[in-house]
Structures are given as structure tokens and as C-alpha cells.
Amino acid sequence: MGLINKLFGGSSEPKEEKVLPWITLSELEQLDTITEKSSTKTQVIFKHSTRCGISRMVMNQFVSAYNLTENDLDLYYLDLLSYRDVSNEVGYKFQVIHQSPQLLVIKNGVVVAHDSHGAINEIDLSRF
């Protein structure tokens, strides 16, 4: 077993999980707060489908690559299956067609960048 673990990356030591400064987006009223706060600090919404393998893969890649702090931007997590009404309102309020997974970058009340699926990880958040 030792050789197989070495070849395929298995390890008996648990990996330390990276935790991002997520803010749960679960209330419609939070969208007004996001709009207001976007005039002084970049706001980011990550829309995630908890039943979708692609969404999980993209989220894992996003988490691995994320290198900003709470001081840089506010990072919202939206479980779009649990909060479908909030997900729908995000599309209306910020004028983006719903996709999953999806990342929206909001400044001064408008979306300045957004993308979905694997292209999420191409967005350079440090630009905002």
C-alpha cells in the first residue's frame, strides 16, 4: 500500500483545509447592503449549486487559488438551491443571466465582471 499511496498522492496525514472569509448570502435585504458597500469596497458573490459536481470542482479550484483578505473585498457565498429567491433577485438586480456556478464582482452598484463555470477562475480579483 505504501507504494500506491506514494504514486497516487495518498497520505495518512490529514490536509489542513483552507477557509475563506465567506459571508453567507441568504436574505434579499443583503443585496441592498452589497450595493451600498460596493461604493467603498469591492463585493463578490459566488453562486454555488450544492448538487452539481462541476460547481463543486470550480469552487474547490477557486478556494485553492484565492489569496486575498477580508480587507481586500467582501466575499459572499450563495447556496442557490437553498436560497433560490435570492439567486433569482441577484440576476434581476445586477442584470446578469443566471448560471451555476457563477461569480459576480460588484463595484459602485454595478457588476464590473462576471463569469461562470471554469472561467470563474480566470477572473483576477486583485484587479478590483
Topology, please?
Blueprint: H1 2-8, E1 22-24, H2 29-37, E2 42-48, H3 53-65, E3 73-79, H4 84-94, E4 102-107, E5 110-116
Parallel strand pairs: 1-3, 2-3
Antiparallel strand pairs: 2-4, 4-5
Describe this structure in words.
The structure is a single chain. With 128 residues, the protein is an alpha/beta fold. The protein has one domain: Glutaredoxin (3-Layer(aba) Sandwich), CATH 3.40.30.10. It is 31% helix and 23% strand. The protein has four helices and five strands, in the order αβαβαβαββ. Strands 1-3-2-4-5 form a five-stranded mixed beta sheet, with helices on both faces. β4 and β5 (110-116) form a beta hairpin.
